[in-house]
């Protein structure tokens, strides 16, 4: 009951507590209880009952906290995020409220389970007893569904989202989906693409592109796109192109990041396919392009496994750190030396930002960038006002503005040697309390647009050939997505391959 507060509160929003709905709401409690008893009866026996129940209590206590606090759904993508997170991200989520959930909904019930005295009878009696329990559970479920058939027809058909909040059944189901996909991916042979790729010998000008992958940056929070607050004071002075109608492949880093570098469009993309297919970096490296990935986020989510990779999350790795965390700006230190060492051939540098990673937005920028106040100084967003959350989030956008201006400054220093360009794209958007939702990660088909509508910016140096910047500025409101990145980068690099689709190239 206590681990399903979010489920029941969402049900009541759809079916308010009225005399007409009271019987149906009661039936949901009975049905859910019967489902739990039925499923646990299949796996809980003499030697498994206590370990399974204790494990479920402990995990369910944590999942109920995140569902209650942020209104998130624990699906297979969220499981993937959990598996691929790091210590820093986990620390951002730890707080007293989470500990209380785990203690009262996880540890204390687990102690009662552990100490419970269970009297077992003969195997025959135990089997008969278990069969009775299973049959009674099935009978109750059938009786409830038949008695309220009209209600449940609507419930299952029109309110599928509500089922995603059941705890623990949905996260157990999602874990199964994730594990199945993991083993399926592991057993699938790698698919090599663009074996014909080459940079034509007629292209005499070396390219230098810095591709910045943002984190949780919403398009509507950039003043370049019309936001009322001045969150891009430095970029507005530069000749940048901000695309106001750019959309993500997914609603989480673990899904969107591999998708951004994949040849697959969102309509036919899956993480399993991406993990077993060459990505943009793989094929460009095959063509002779010098690739470097620098990361101030958790990791590359498998994208940079076969290219040079540098981590910038700790003080011994990142030269620009303070008492709060290491800053994105640190990824720029030493880049000029790398460029000087690779004057022959093209260069693609990927910088993966910490950006606006939540819920501790106040940690994402140095004190000098706290322009909008008061700010939320907690990772418990539900305890802050919407204004405080927005202020902290916007300050982080302000720091990204500064960071991107420094990227452009570095590129300008290399204009005489290279055709230079910056391409910035966020991996997904973010909910800041709208409709009771926080953070990101909802299934794409139900996620609000603010979790999918992302910031995207381009800048080109003075010596870039073949790109009409003025014409490009006329396309800033045209709809683009992560699907365009693969072909746009290939186009800028003048790479020739059969997999290149000029219709998907924003620059074509």
Explain what this protein looks like in three dimensions.
- Helix content is 42%, strand content 10%.
- By secondary structure, it is an alpha/beta fold.
- It has two domains: 2-186, no CATH class; 207-504, 3-Layer(aba) Sandwich (Alkaline Phosphatase, subunit A).
- Helix 4 crosses helix 10.
- The longest helix has 27 residues, at 386-412.
- The radius of gyration is 26 Å and the shape is elongated.
- The mean pLDDT is 95.
What is the structure about, briefly put?
The protein has helices at 5-14, 19-43, 49-70, 76-83, 87-93, 96-115, 123-147, 149-158, 160-163, 169-186, 253-260, 271-275, 280-286, 335-340, 386-412, 469-473, 485-492; strands spanning 207-214, 241-247, 290-295, 309-311, 347-352, 419-426, 431-432, 438-439, 453-460, 480-481.
Question: Which secondary-structure class do the elements indicate?
Answer: alpha/beta
The overall pLDDT, averaged over residues, is: 95
> Number of helix segments?
17
In order across it, which strands form the biggest sheet?
Answer: 4-3-5-1-6-9-2-10
CATH class of the largest domain: Alpha Beta
Number of strands: 10
**Total domain modules:** 2
- CATH H level, superfamily name of the largest domain: Alkaline Phosphatase, subunit A
Global outline: elongated
The rounded distance between the terminal residues' Cα atoms is 57 Å
Architecture of the largest domain in CATH?
A: 3-Layer(aba) Sandwich
CATH topology of the largest domain: Alkaline Phosphatase, subunit A
Q: How much helicity do the residues have?
A: 40-55%
Largest sheet: 8 strands, mixed
Regions with little confidence, pLDDT below 50 for 5+ residues: none
Order of helices and strands: HHHHHHHHHHEEHHHEEHEHEEEEHEH
């Amino acid at each position: 009951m206590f681990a399903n507060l979010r489920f029941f509160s969402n049900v009541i929003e759809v079916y308010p507590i009225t005399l007409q709905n009271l019987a149906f709401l009661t039936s949901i409690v009975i049905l859910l209880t019967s489902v739990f008893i039925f499923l646990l009866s299949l796996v809980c026996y003499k030697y498994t009952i206590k370990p399974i129940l204790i494990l479920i209590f402990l995990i369910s206590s944590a999942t109920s906290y995140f569902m209650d606090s942020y209104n998130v759904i624990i699906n297979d993508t969220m499981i993937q995020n959990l598996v691929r997170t790091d210590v820093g991200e986990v620390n951002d989520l730890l707080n007293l409220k989470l500990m209380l959930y785990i203690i009262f909904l996880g540890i204390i019930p687990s102690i009662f389970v552990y100490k419970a005295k269970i009297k077992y009878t003969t195997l025959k009696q135990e089997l008969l007893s278990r069969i009775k329990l299973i049959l009674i559970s099935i009978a109750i479920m059938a009786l409830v569904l038949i008695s309220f058939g009209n209600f449940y027809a609507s419930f299952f058909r029109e309110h599928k989202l509500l089922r995603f909040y059941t705890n623990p059944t949905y996260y157990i189901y999602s874990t199964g989906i994730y594990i199945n996909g993991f083993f399926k991916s592991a057993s699938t042979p790698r698919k090599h693409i663009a074996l014909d790729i080459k940079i034509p010998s007629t292209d005499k000008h070396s390219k230098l592109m810095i591709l910045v992958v943002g984190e949780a940056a919403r398009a509507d929070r950039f003043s370049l796109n019309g936001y009322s607050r001045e969150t891009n004071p430095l970029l507005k002075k530069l000749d940048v192109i901000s695309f106001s109608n750019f959309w993500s492949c997914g609603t989480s880093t673990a899904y969107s990041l591999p998708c951004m570098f994949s040849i697959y469009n969102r309509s036919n993309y899956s993480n399993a396919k991406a993990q077993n297919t060459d990505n943009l970096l793989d094929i460009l490296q095959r063509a002779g392009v010098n690739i470097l990935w620098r990361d101030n986020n958790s990791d590359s989510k498998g994208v940079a496994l076969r290219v040079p990779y540098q981590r910038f999350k700790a003080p011994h790795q990142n030269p620009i750190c303070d008492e709060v965390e290491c800053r994105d700006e640190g990824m720029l230190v030493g880049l000029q030396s790398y460029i000087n060492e690779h004057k022959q051939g093209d260069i693609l540098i990927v910088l993966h930002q910490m950006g606006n990673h939540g819920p501790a937005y106040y940690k994402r920028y140095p004190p000098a960038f706290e322009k909008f106040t008061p700010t939320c100084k907690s990772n418990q967003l539900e305890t802050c006002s919407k204004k405080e959350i927005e202020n902290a989030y916007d300050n982080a956008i302000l720091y990204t503005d500064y960071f991107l201006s420094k990227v452009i400054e570095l590129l300008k220093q290399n204009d005489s040697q290279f055709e230079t360009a910056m391409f910035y794209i966020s991996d997904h958007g973010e909910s800041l309390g709208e409709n009771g939702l926080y953070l990101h990660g909802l299934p794409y088909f139900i996620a609000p647009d603010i979790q999918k509508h992302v910031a995207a910016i381009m800048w080109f140096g003075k010596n870039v050939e073949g790109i009409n910047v003025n014409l490009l500025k006329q396309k800033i409101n045209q709809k683009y997505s992560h699907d365009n990145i693969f072909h746009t980068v290939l186009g800028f690099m003048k790479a020739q391959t059969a997999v290149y689709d000029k219709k998907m190239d924003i620059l074509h």
